Model the fold of this input.
Amino acid sequence: MTEIEKTKPNVLGVKVKGSAQTGHKIEMAEKSALCQIFGTSDDKQANALLSHCLKVLKAEEATDEHPRNDERTFMLSVIRDLAPRDAVERMLAVQMAATHVATIRAGAWLSRSENLAQGKTHSTAYAKLARTFTSQVEALRKHRTGGRQTVTVQHVNVSDGGRAIVSNVQPGGRGGDE
Done:
């Protein structure tokens, strides 16, 4: 750990230590820190969602023994930044964080492929995960907007011999009469 990391405050208000083998220990700056990350007032729901985050990580991605590979804080920070507003958004945020980690993991495997068969397998997995993430982003957008999309349609009438400009015309520009 660098000197900066030692002195830098944990902006999440939560530290996850330990491992799946030894047990994860959660340190919170304040009692509601985990609830704030997940956007809920229900401690049990926040703890269950944290458990879901930890379940999808490989052993070396959720342990103090491999701090450079530790994805626990990253997942929590992504969920916090997504600012889930209800139960659907909370579950989707956990899925999105997990899908992103899996996508990056698949990309790493792809970069280390040693033959065509491995490359094809990892490329397929990477592409599917990337599409899944895009679908999750779209699902979150639709959920937040109620599925509404705004389309602006303008109708323009042009008389015989007239000309129409289909553009974003700004007043005050220089004309061709000068």
Remarks:
- The first strand starts at residue 14 and ends at 19.
- The chain has six helices and two strands.
- Residues 32 and 118 are 45 Å apart (CA to CA).
- The two ends are 68 Å apart (CA to CA).
